[in-house]
């Protein structure tokens, strides 16, 4: 009787293992400082977030931004329709982190899975950005204000990138963090609303 029960349980475990491993392998990372929209959803600070509240680390899309990558209006979700709530500007009411224009700041990526990394890049919106509209390339300064090359190295833990908030900025802005992966065709996108 015990043998009859053991074999089906073993088979069930063998079948379930790849599914469990695949679920873990799909986990990746997001900016925790300043807190990204996906992080705020996962923490329950923002509600009605859909699936992203359960997997804030999964905002993965094609790399090559800004020349390629997610379409305009879908950048905060990495072009992934499952996470479209991140592209909803919510009337410009996303919680914003207060930062100081021209001051130094430690940008932190939190990882649930670590990938060989090409770089971390940070873009900020132009003056006159309208926070009530979905993010487009035209809303962003054309070049990142901070680029940190990693040359294919795999992070061993969370990563802090020290940079300077662009001077002369004021009011509500958005910082787009892009984590470029070295060994896949993808990058991770992380939008953080800030007040300067």
TrEMBL record:
Keyword presence, Cell membrane: no
SUPFAM superfamilies: E set domains
Chitin-binding type-4 domain: residues covered: 28-194
A molecular function GO annotation: monooxygenase activity
Organism: Solihabitans fulvus
Keywords from the UniProt entry: Monooxygenase, Oxidoreductase, Signal
Region listing for Disordered, in residue ranges: 57-81
Protein name: Lytic polysaccharide monooxygenase
InterPro entries: Cellulose/chitin-bd_N, GlcNAc_Chitin_IntDeg, Ig_E-set
One Pfam family matching this protein: LPMO_10
Signal peptide: 1-27
């Amino acid at each position: 009787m015990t043998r009859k029960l053991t074999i089906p349980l073993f088979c069930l475990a063998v079948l379930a293992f790849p599914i469990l491993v695949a679920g873990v392998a799909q986990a990746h990372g997001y900016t925790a400082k300043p807190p990204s929209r996906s992080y705020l959803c996962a923490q329950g600070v923002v509600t009605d977030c859909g699936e992203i509240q359960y997997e804030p680390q999964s905002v993965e899309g094609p790399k090559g931004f800004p020349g390629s990558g997610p379409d305009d209006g879908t950048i905060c979700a990495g072009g992934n329709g499952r996470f479209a709530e991140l592209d909803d500007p919510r009337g410009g009411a996303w919680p914003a982190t207060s930062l100081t224009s021209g001051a130094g700041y430690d940008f932190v990526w939190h990882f649930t899975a670590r990938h060989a990394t090409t770089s971390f890049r940070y873009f900020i919106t132009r003056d006159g950005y309208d926070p009530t509209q979905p993010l487009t390339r035209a809303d962003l300064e054309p070049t990142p204000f901070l680029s940190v090359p990693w040359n294919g190295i795999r992070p061993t833990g969370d990563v802090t990138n020290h940079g300077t908030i662009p001077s002369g900025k004021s009011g509500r802005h958005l910082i787009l963090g892009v984590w470029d992966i070295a060994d896949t065709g993808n990058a991770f996108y992380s939008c953080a609303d800030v007040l300067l």
